[in-house]
Amino acid sequence: MKNTINFSYFRNWFLNSQYKNNFSIDGLSSLYDYLVNLEEELETEFDFDPIAFACEYSEYENFEEIKENYNSIETIQDLENHTTIIEVVGTDKLIIQNF
Fold this sequence. Notes:
Elements: H1 7-15, H2 25-42, H3 50-56, E1 57-60, H4 63-69, H5 76-82, E2 85-87, E3 94-97
Antiparallel strand pairs: 1-3, 2-3
Helix pairs in contact: 1-2
């Protein structure tokens, strides 16, 4: 038995938790859309596990900030070869799956 989680619930859970600083509002929207699309592509349902999402994904202000945290990354192509990249619509922010 699974519950359907809408964006409002998803966003509010994060904003009212100790993980409220992990993602911006725009970042939460992009992450939610990514996860919903992934469910559709894989034809499966994920459990709502926001702590796992907060541990598995990180939001960065821009690509330069990612390069500062990952010494082996020089280009977007390098990053794409290592992980999933979720663009935060309307910003320079990126969410990546931690690796």
